[in-house]
């Protein structure tokens, strides 16, 4: 189920910052069954996770089915999946998306703890950030994946 305030996904584009540098605008799909986790991710990433990356839109999903539908029918530059979501965890969902979606966007998984990095590798995630969420690590990971973006790989 998508959140009522979720905005429609759009393809990445670039704008110019005041200093003349290019700013990549990205669309992010965020999956967690826990609204507080979704809120924490959005707050920690912010509107501008890096000087050259701006989040133009967020699409929030609370179920794996909503994520699959959104990814099949939309265009996202970054997917953020909560590995602790239930009943379908973000790690298994990541592996499924990487194996079933042609030109799958880069995926950041949120693991339960730092020692779960091996699970992120198994899931074929591009990057992982453990709970408790570190705002700097989270924003940095979203910015890095946003630079890669779906548009660059499509």
Automatic annotation (TrEMBL):
Record-given protein name: Response regulatory domain-containing protein
Organism for this UniProt entry: Pedococcus cremeus
Keywords, sorted A to Z: Phosphoprotein
Record-listed 4-aspartylphosphate modification sites: 82
Domain of life (superkingdom): Bacteria
Keyword Phosphoprotein recorded: yes
Domain Response regulatory per the UniProt entry, residue ranges: 27-146
Listed InterPro entries: CheY-like_superfamily (IPR011006), Sig_transdc_resp-reg_receiver (IPR001789)
One Gene Ontology term from the biological process aspect of the record: phosphorelay signal transduction system
Residue ranges of the TM segments: none
Keyword Acetylation among UniProt keywords: no
């Amino acid at each position: 189920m998508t959140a009522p305030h979720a905005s429609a996904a759009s393809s990445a584009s670039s704008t110019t910052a005041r200093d003349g540098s290019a700013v990549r605008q990205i669309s992010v799909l965020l999956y967690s069954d826990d609204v507080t986790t979704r809120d924490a991710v959005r707050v920690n990433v912010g509107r501008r996770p890096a000087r050259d990356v701006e989040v133009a839109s967020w699409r929030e999903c609370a179920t794996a089915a909503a994520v699959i539908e959104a990814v099949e029918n939309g265009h996202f530059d970054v997917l953020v999946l909560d590995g602790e979501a239930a009943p379908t965890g973000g790690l298994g969902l990541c592996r499924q998306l990487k194996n079933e979606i042609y030109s799958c966007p880069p995926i950041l998984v949120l693991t339960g703890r730092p020692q779960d990095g091996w699970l992120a590798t198994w899931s074929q995630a591009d990057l992982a950030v453990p709970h408790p969420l570190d705002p700097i690590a989270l924003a940095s990971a979203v910015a890095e994946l946003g630079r890669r973006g779906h548009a660059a790989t499509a």
